Amino acid sequence: MELEDVVKMLEEGKVKMHELEGLLKDPNAATRARRLFLERRLGIKLNAIGSTVIDFNQVYGRNTENTIGAVQVPLGVAGPLLVKGVYANGLYYVPLATTEGALVASVNRGAKVITENGGARSIVVKDGMARAPLFRLPTATDAVDFINWINTNIDKIREVAESSSRHLRLKEIQPFINGNNAWLRLVFSTGDAMGMNMVTIASERVAQWIEGNYPKAKLITVSGNMCVDKKPNAVNFLLGRGKTVISEATVSRRYLMERFNITPEEVVNVNVRKNLLGSAYAHSYGFNAHFANIVAAMFIATGQDVAQVVESSMGITWAEVDDNGDLYVSVTLPSLEVGTVGGGTGLPTQREALQMLGVQGGGDPPGSNALKLAEIIAAAVLAGELNLLIAQHRRELGKAHERLGRAGRT
């Protein structure tokens, strides 16, 4: 069918937007048709939205539906940032997609401080993507018996789960009971994929097998919110989901005094009173200054699931004066959910951002690229945290935003 014919059918209500790929046999043409329909219906032009390098044949059935174009976000770069990790080892230029003035400059200055003081030491201490099917049992006693049965059949459950993907391994099952409800928090290694879809498919197979072999257990949902996905929560804070990663650095007293006229004790004081006491008083799940800023900017740049910034930006900033009188500072991110294959990582601009970091696609060995990305993100978060602590003690926050975030405005 011709493009104009399809647009006219949309205007007359004879077809629905989601049917256009089937009619035109071309997701790019379907995208243009929907955009033209909206322009006429709304009396506006969507030229910028239509200007994109994306081939919607690569998007259809993978990333989104009812496409009309793309939204562009300014992409800045911070660095070089020296990272000394198990997988990330070298100088990195960090891509940050953001509309917040001063953010890239903040990470950039923090990266300079860290790099000139020997670099950031990053390490992933735990790795596992979770999905938690919820089952209903007749009684609480039955729920306890059910968990015991699960533990005696874990080898078979592992076999069923791993049959869904050659990249997936079941690491453990964390059970939870409340009344006659039982959650099985299934934790998997997922290679270089973030793995949420992978573990959902595996969990559905496991749940189906359980229902077939334990009739008292009735599946309520494959995702019972003990996973926990896209919600701030204590479970992921304590048990982790995705990558639990730490990045740390030491900044000399002399450097801080000469460069910023600030002491390690003054940085520690800001961290304790702001990030620890202030966050505790607010009952926050983030004992930090602005993890979410850096995590969100890097997620957008590298094609991660942006909604997972919610739990990925939970964490704690720690600072102390070390035995030599220098500043020790670290960030711990318990639930950093990232991958280098799948999701939005295959989109053209996101793929290039991953190439900048040397982590695009699958790693050798499998899983190493995702672990490397996690180490780099944690180091970038550390740079942002360190700089903001310094800036807030020096009362530079408002000045920086006035200079870099309000150009041309009064």
Automatic annotation (TrEMBL):
One Pfam family matching this protein: HMG-CoA_red
Keyword NADP: yes
Positions in coiled-coil regions: none
Gene3D superfamilies the record matches: 3-hydroxy-3-methylglutaryl-coenzyme A Reductase, Chain A, domain 2, HMGR, N-terminal domain, Hydroxymethylglutaryl-CoA reductase, class I/II, NAD/NADP-binding domain
Pathway the protein acts in: Metabolic intermediate biosynthesis; (R)-mevalonate biosynthesis; (R)-mevalonate from acetyl-CoA: step 3/3
Catalytic class of the enzyme: oxidoreductase
GO biological process, one term: sterol biosynthetic process
Keywords: NADP, Oxidoreductase
PROSITE patterns (UniProt xref): HMG_COA_REDUCTASE_1, HMG_COA_REDUCTASE_2, HMG_COA_REDUCTASE_4
SUPFAM superfamilies: NAD-binding domain of HMG-CoA reductase, Substrate-binding domain of HMG-CoA reductase
InterPro entries: HMG_CoA_Rdtase (IPR002202), HMG_CoA_Rdtase_cat_sf (IPR023074), HMG_CoA_Rdtase_CS (IPR023076), HMG_CoA_Rdtase_eu_arc (IPR004554), HMG_CoA_Rdtase_N (IPR023282), HMG_CoA_Rdtase_NAD(P)-bd_sf (IPR009023), HMG_CoA_Rdtase_sub-bd_dom_sf (IPR009029)
Catalytic activity, as annotated: (R)-mevalonate + 2 NADP(+) + CoA = (3S)-3-hydroxy-3-methylglutaryl-CoA + 2 NADPH + 2 H(+)
EC number: 1.1.1.34
Entry's Gene Ontology molecular function annotations: hydroxymethylglutaryl-CoA reductase (NADPH) activity
NCBIfam families, per database record: HMG_CoA_R_NADP
Family: Belongs to the HMG-CoA reductase family.
Name used for this protein in its record: 3-hydroxy-3-methylglutaryl coenzyme A reductase
Organism: Caldivirga maquilingensis (strain ATCC 700844 / DSM 13496 / JCM 10307 / IC-167)
Lineage, broadest ranks: Archaea, Thermoproteota, Thermoprotei, Thermoproteales, Thermoproteaceae
